[in-house]
Structure formats: structure tokens, C-alpha cells
Request: fold
Amino acid sequence: MQENIDSAIEAAVRLIAKANNPVSFSGAGLSAESGIATFRDKSEDALWAKFDPMKLASQEGFSENPDRVIDWYNDRRKTVAKAQPNAAHTSLGEQSGWVHITQNVDNLLENGGAAGRDVIHLHGTLDKDHCNGECGYRETIDMGNPPALRNCPECGISMRPSVIWFGESLPERALMAAADAAQRTDLMLVIGTSAQVMPAARLIDIAREQGAGIVIINTEKSAQVADSDIELTGKAGDLVPRLFER
Ligand code: OAD
Reply:
């Protein structure tokens, strides 16, 4: 309840203080205040309200019109290249002993101070391309000046962004590391995710089922809340720093 936000924050702070293996699990809402659009919420700017995900984020969409897909990702890359970490990213980045599992394809947790080894990108990252065939060729790209549609220099098949599309499996190493962290955590801070996309959202259940405290920060009431969770309704950039005030 919003009128009890101060006591809910105090309860969350107490959980965080005694946590041995704290984990954050974030989605697009974490980066919203950095000017990066979310996918689905009440905002008219939410990406999947404006665009058809199957045309832009699936193999079918890529085969139908590869230029359209690459141009859309390149627009997002240019936005992300200019974005700065917000107060939520920097607060998380200042903490030690945390594992950060994120569905976000930006690098704002790392830019906010989190060590790369502590950040698990479940859905890939925009700053890489890989061959859409089987050859395994990869490239880091300049997000401010990304290349147009081009072919793999090794095998000639199209290059594509290294983000997960609908119908594709998550990167195995990232998924294993995230599942392990969710199984071991005693406190999961869930920030800015609609928790609708599987298997990522299942990590919250894994943590909850083995007894972890769950603290949820979202601007909207979440459908995925259990009675035992602490729900903080508001912006990540306001609420996350309050959890770490001393
Ligand atoms: P969504 O766009 O589905 O959800 C974002 C959530 O953040 C919503 O519940 C909003 O209410 C909340 N929100 C918005 N602004 C916020 C703020 N300032 N502070 C706190 N919360 C805020 O994003 P995800 O859950 O990340 O997949 O979506 C999961 C996946 O669906 C994405 O990784 C993407 C997409 O298809 C891939 O790219 C593979």
C-alpha cells in the first residue's frame, strides 16, 4: 500500500541488511528513467504497443524484412549509446556482494559501476552482433554508429544483433548462472519488470519457493506478487537509492 511506503521500505532495508546472497532481477523499467523505452506498460511509448514484436524480434520477421529489423535495432542502439545510468543503476553499482540478473540489453548496470562479472544478461546485449548462421562469428559494434545490414565475413550469412528473439533459447551459460543465483539467494530485489516473459520471470518463483524474501519495485501494481512479498510502488530511480541510504 502506497500510504505505508515508508514502513515497507524499512522492512525491505532490514531484509537487505541481513541478506547473505542478494540478487537483483531487473527489466526495462530499471532503464526507463535513462530514456530507454519499456516493452509493455501503460505508457503509449511502450515498444510492443507501437510495434509488432514478431516483425522485429523473431527469425520470421528477420527473414521477411532484414533491413527493417536491423534499422529498428540500430535506432535503439543509438538511443542506448547516449543514455546515462540513472540513480537506480548507480545505487546498485555501488553495492558489493550482489549478483545482478537483467533482461535488459543495455549496459547501464555496468556503466553505473557494477562489475561485469556480477551482471548476468539473460536476453543478450545490443553491443554485439553475431552470424545468423551456424559459424559462430561475433563482433562488438559501435552502438553510436552501428553498421547497416551486412553479411558475415566468415560464411556470408546475414549478421544480426546478439539479443534473444521470440522462440529462441536463452544463452545457456547466462541461464544456468541466473538459475543458480536464484536458487541460492535469500533476497531478490525485482525491479521494473512486467514478469511476463518466460523463462526469465520464473526466476522470481524459484527464489520465492526456496524461501528468499522478495522485494518488488514497479510503477504499476504487479500481477505476480505473493502475499509474503514486499511491494514498493514507484519509480526505480526514487526507490532503489532509498533502500541503500545509510
Ligand atoms: P516490460 O516492458 O514488459 O515491463 C517493464 C515494467 O517496468 C512494467 O511493469 C512497468 O510498469 C515498469 N516500469 C516502467 N517504468 C518504471 C520505472 N521508472 N521504475 C520502475 N518500474 C517501471 O519489460 P521487461 O519485463 O523487461 O525481451 O520485458 C521482458 C522482455 O520482454 C524484454 O527483455 C524483452 C521484451 O520482449 C527481449 O528483448 C528478448
